[in-house]
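Exercise (ungraded).
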Amino acid sequence: MPVSSDEFTAMNARDWHVLMALLEEDLHGYAIMKAVAHDSRGKVTAEVGSLYRVLDRLMQGGMVEEVAAPDHEPGGSPGRPRRYFRLTEHGRAALRRETVRLRDALDLARARSLLPEPPR
Amino acid sequence: MTGPDRWFAMLLRLFPADFRERHGDDMRETFERACDERRAVGRRHLAAFLFRTILDLGASGLRERLKPAGRRPFRSRRRSHRSLLVSWLDVKLGARMLRKHPGLTLVSTLALAVGIPVGLAPSHVVDGLLAPLPVPEGGRVRALRLWSPRGGRAATTTSFDLATWRPVLSSFEELGAYLETAYNLDVEGGRSVRAAAVTASTFDILRVPPLLGRPIQRPDMIPGGADVVVLGYDLWQAHYGGDPALVGRSIRLGGIPHTVAGVMPEGFLFPERQSVWTPLRLPESDAPEGAVPVTIFGRLAEGVTEASAQAEFASVAARSTFPGRDPDVMPQVVAHAYGVLPGLSGELRATPEFLAFQGLAIVVLLVACANVAMLVFARIATRDGELAVRTALGASRARIVAQVFTECLVLAVLASGLGLALMAMVMDVTGKVIPSRLSAALPYWIDWSIGGRMALRGLSLAALSAVVAGVVPALRFTGASVQSRIQRARARRTGSRFGGLSGILIVVDVAVAVTAVGFAATAYDLVRNVASTPSTAGIPAEEYLAATLSLPRGQVDVGPDAEGRAARMAATQREIVRRLRAEPGVRTVAVADALPRMEHRSRLVEAEGVDPPGNRPAVSVRTARVDVGFFESLGQPMLAGRGFDAGDLQGDRRAVIVNTTFVERVLGGQSAVGRRIRFRSWGDGEPGPWKEIVGVVGHLGMRMISARNDQGVYEPFAPGELASVRLGIQVGEDPTSFAPRLRAMASEVDPEAVVTVTGALDAVYEGDWYVLLASSVGAGLLVGVLLALAASGIYAIMSFAVTQRTQEIGIRAALGASRPDLVRAVAKRAVGQLGAGVLLGMPLSALFFSSGERSLYAGALSTLLVGAMVMSLVGMVACTGPTLRALRVSPSQALSDPT
């Protein structure tokens, strides 16, 4: 059941990082897990159970879709190709919207001197 | 499949089936890759990862299950506010359900009413023991002690420590000290009283003003000053008729006149259960040598936390050590109880014993919960149709789970209340049943009453029980799709089955019940046996008066004059024994540190040339120090070798006598006389010198239970070597009537000698006996509950077997199956579980009994058989109802049911 991106009020950090991990390339579960930990410098973790709950939810929301493994990838368990996940257009829009919200928040925090201006 | 893979697969089952279908394989593969990579980095990384994964799978799985059906993937602004899952209606519905199924309610309530108090008991016992003193802000009165890890008890603190710490410790308003002692009170018939020599600061620290007169004051502490005494309320009432004019008058305490300075209010029995306080007179010298051993305590200063007081005390105590003190002692600021009980290691709640005790108690509670869960599951199954319809009408899964949870919560709260009431009643009865001597020995601050805190804890355990017993079965039950449940409901049958877990649970219930029946019967036998034993190992115990003789400490003997004290004790003991022997009516007098039937001290012994069993360096034995004529006085002949003589008290003291059990068990039945043994300490310390066995006696009973089974070693002692000795005086019938004469005799010899009469030797109950009494009562209670649980479990399983197989039974009957065939078909599973439980229970308890002491548990096998029979009978009764129901199924009715 796709969700309109307007309906999206707050994306939690784990959702955001999972979508971000898929921005440039399709990844399988374990690669997403590592990317989330790496991109967030370990501050956000997605253990197996949580990761697949997030993926399940994002898939149901139409933001992520399942794709076949690329040709160079040997695949997972025998008889069953490894699943890869891809960011959909809808997901990309939601990610952009959330990121813009974060940027606006950052700008506000800088304007009110909560955070320093970035070095130029 | 490796270990982690296996439990990953198991934990994966926490997720709903459709979720597993979608992602299970992928999740497993991701987990395996992550494991491989962590394994390559190191075991610690792997362990940390596994730990995180367990927690994560548990939480995610449950959240996924509780997710309302059809919930939108993201929170929307349009979400309605129906988050209050538990309503008053559920509570009412829960109460109605309890009434509707009285049998189930009764069994479940009973199970939790026992399980919850058992779960609460360990921390309740510790809380009561560590309760603050019943004085204003009693929690701020703390003991200061030096814990010796090597000795396993607190090292002795002295007046030197008090003098050193007092001026520098700023965390305490004031420090005080006390020394426990006893006096003879010169009243009608004589009486020994527990007393404490205390510093004047004690009363400031405790902030309890006297009821009459004044407390001990500083001038009273000056050596050589007038002797004053402050009396306790009960003593004042009992012996002086509550006469207010007593203050200022003189009473004789330990034969010496003391002026009564004041009377303390009712209930003040500081430090343990004392009713007389005298000034503590400290030596003038500040040297560590010759200082008086005292217990030190103080009141934390305003605004000072225990942690900062602890830090300051640690640094102060480290600076004030001296040669001769164990350098490894740990300074501790602790609850008052730890000061009074120096053998209690600090932080009682962190000790492995306590944790094991608490863990076991929680396991008992969980087993009770698991049983109730099974019954709840059975009950939900009968409401399959109702729940399916509710779901179809829009009730979310969480809503239904919440409803079942509330029903269980109502039950658990009821059970918790009942359990606490039961606990209060048991304590009340125990307080009345156990001899007043024991209850009078309990420290006065101990508070085991059941108050608000306990009720709160009971409620939290009730909530936990409701989660285990309600939420788990509800989740399991609501797992199936709405459609299939409605179909099942239309077919008027239940599609739910008991899992393998319920079968295991019943087998375990039955096994434990069989063991418990055996244990309870054996323990009861032992209690009856001990209580009715007229004599101990051939000694006519009912003719002996048991009493303790000692000299008061503190006021009479402050200072370094230990030798003088020993000489005085020696003279007193010799003279009293001499007079007793000359007394008409007294046949013999035995003197020792413990008399037969009493608890004797345990020590480790190593025998020369004998390898103890199990490659341990030494064996545990019971020991006693006895006077030279001890065995003759008890009419015990030497079975080999010789008795002790005066020569054994000279020189290096090498002679010991052992009992026949020692010869059998430690020496393997070989000739004992002439062999050598030595004592070892419990730690790694050096063993003592070798001693020679000079004689062998029979077993005289070195503890109450299993008197015949204690290997014992006797050593001689000379008068004056023990600060307090036990006298066994053979006077014939009604030995207690001799007590006043004994007291009078003692005060003629030494007015300060304290005689505490224990009673007739055959009425001495100590240590093990109480443990035995408590365990037989506890086991009896447990048996009842387990029997009820097992029976109800079997009943539930049978009922469901019959309900589920109505059609099958009908078809079989139509095809001409005989009634015995039908009974067999229905009861097979329950009987199998019953049999498995009995078969498992019997060897288990046999194992349990054989690790005990064989000869006394000879009756165990027969009681075990009785246990097995009782259990089988109960199981059969539980089977009867459902089986009869199965036989009443008519073929036409069964076949007309729609499928």
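Further reading is listed at the end of the chapter. For now, observe: Residues 75-84, 492-496, 555-560, 851-857 of chain B have pLDDT under 50 and may be disordered. Chain B touches chain A through 28 residues (CB under 8 Å).
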